[in-house]
């Protein structure tokens, strides 16, 4: 459903510089179980149990997709993947380490990051992190919010 809506949006808006992939982006290449939300397909998740049904879908890492597609860099990556943000970023370790993702806007859910402290430390090492509210508040690793928030990450100049 979501891929169909995205495809129609790209077509209706006349976007010609968009390539769509009908798969999940995560921390491994293979398959993953996508749990289907009974109320809203925008809340489908590979992390949270959002309904009683699931389907097995293809999964790729951003590193392998970038290699396959010859993608040199990502200027802006927007992540709102219902708790799978750490999984996506884990699958982009080479891109992150090489400074090939310049900016990230992402949903931050504290509970899913508790299991990923090393990745979180890496993100703060490579990026200046801001909470998006009415203004941008610069954050440190120690000042991350204890609630769900939207974050803006801008690559540090030292990379």
Please give the largest β-sheet: 5 strands, mixed
Rounded radius of gyration (Å):
16 Å
- Protein structure class: alpha/beta
Strand percentage, roughly? 25-35%
Query: Helicity range of the residues?
Result: 25-40%
Order of secondary-structure elements: HEEEHEHHEHHEEE
User: Can you give the mean pLDDT?
Assistant: 92
**Span between N and C termini?**
39 Å
Low-confidence segments, ≥5 residues, pLDDT <50? none
Number of strands: 8
Q: Please work out how many helical segments DSSP would assign.
A: 6
Strand order of the largest sheet: 4-5-8-6-7
Oligomer: single chain
Shape by Cα distribution = globular
Quick structural overview:
The chain has helices at 2-12, 62-69, 85-90, 93-97, 110-113, 117-126, and strands at 24-26, 30-36, 53-61, 74-79, 101-108, 127-132, 136-139, 149-155. The chain has 159 residues and is of the alpha/beta class.
Describe the structure.
This protein is α/β, with parallel strands linked by helices. The chain is built from six helices and eight strands. The strands form two sheets. Strands 4-5-8-6-7 form a five-stranded mixed sheet. Strands 1-3-2 form a three-stranded mixed sheet. Strand 6 and strand 7 form a beta hairpin. The longest helix has 11 residues. It is globular, with a radius of gyration of 16 Å.
């Amino acid at each position: 459903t979501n891929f169909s809506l995205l495809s129609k949006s790209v077509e209706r808006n006349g976007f010609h510089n968009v390539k769509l992939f009908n798969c999940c982006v995560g921390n491994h290449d293979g398959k993953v179980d996508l749990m289907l939300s009974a109320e809203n397909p925008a809340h489908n998740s590979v992390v949270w149990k959002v309904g009683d049904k699931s389907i097995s879908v293809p999964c790729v890492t951003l590193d392998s997709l970038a290699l396959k597609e010859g993608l040199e860099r990502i200027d802006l990556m927007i992540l709102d993947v219902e708790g799978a943000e750490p999984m996506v970023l884990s699958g982009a370790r080479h891109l992150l380490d090489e400074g090939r993702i310049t900016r990230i806007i992402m949903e931050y859910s504290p509970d899913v990051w508790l299991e990923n402290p090393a990745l979180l430390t890496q993100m703060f090492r490579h990026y200046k992190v801001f909470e998006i509210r009415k203004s941008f508040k610069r954050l440190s690793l120690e000042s991350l919010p204890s609630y769900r928030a939207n974050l803006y990450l801008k690559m540090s100049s030292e990379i």
